[in-house]
Every structure is written in C-alpha cells, then in structure tokens.
Amino acid sequence: MHVQGASLACRYPPHFGRFQVTDERDDSGAPRVRGPVAACAFSAADVVCVHEAVWRYITVPGVTEVALMTWLADQPGIGDDAVTKWPHKDRWDITVRAGATVFEVDLKDTRSPSKITARPPRARHVVVPDYRAWQVAQLRRSLPAGYEVRTVRAFKTAIRNALKEAR
Fold first, then answer.
1. Whole domain around residue 96: which residue ranges?
2. Edge-to-edge strand list for the sheet holding 18-25
3. Could you read off the pLDDT of 103-120 as tens digits, one per residue?
4. Is residue 6 located within the same domain as residue 75?
C-alpha cells in the first residue's frame, strides 16, 4: 500500500481500491482509514484509443518515468535544469544532477527481467517500479558488472543521500 497525503492506495495496477486516511485515531493511536473512496468519473467524449502496442510499450511504462521526473524536479536542491528527460533521443530515460552526482537512469517496467538482460540498458542506473521489486536481485545477478539496480523507492533514497552529501 502507498500513502500519499491522506490517500492510501495499492500500486499494483489490478487493485483499484483507494482509501482515505483520517485525522481520527483508534485505541492504539493508529490513524483510521475510510473507504473505499468512490472514484471520480470523467467524460469520455473526447477520448481516443491508441494502438495496443503504443499503450503497452510506451504509455504505461511512461507513467512511472513521468512520475519520477516530477518527483525529482520537486526536490529541494534539484531544479528543472538538473533533470534531462529522454536524453540523446531516449538512449535512457532521465539524467539528473543531485549535488555533485550525476545519475543516468533507465526505468524498466517490464514483466520479464530477461528482456532487460538480453539488451542491457545504456544507463548505469537501472530502476524498476516498486511493484516489480522482486526483479532487483535477478537483474543484479544477470546484468554485467557496473550497473546499479534499484526500485523507484530505493532510487529516491539514493537521490536524497546525494543531496545531503552536497550540503
């Protein structure tokens, strides 16, 4: 489960439940959760469909990339000019400067880690979504030496640490 503000939701895509964390506490002091919260409905009048291949291989993996880019740009000590999106015509996904450290990141959201190892990324930092954390150990074993493999959460920690060192 992932908590963002007062929202509680599972990051595993098939799970649609969203819950609201309240200011109320139970007897043990833990916050009470209400839900599931009704989803907002949007008009589909102007919606178009893209080809399944575009959706599966570009749009869906791009959601995690864009969320990470947004998070990076919002970090104190990292400005928009320190985050380069899809450099060198998408050789990798993100280049970010955090203090004195430059991270070249390829975010991989694929069901099969063997697809990643068959064509090793050009970027040294390979990041997988948190819901694919099980792939980290296999990728570390299978990729050539020199790669740093992390989940999104662990990568964010590495960024925070690099920013702390820069202070």
1. 52-166
2. 2-4, 7-9, 18-25, 31-34
3. 999 999 988 999 999 999
4. no
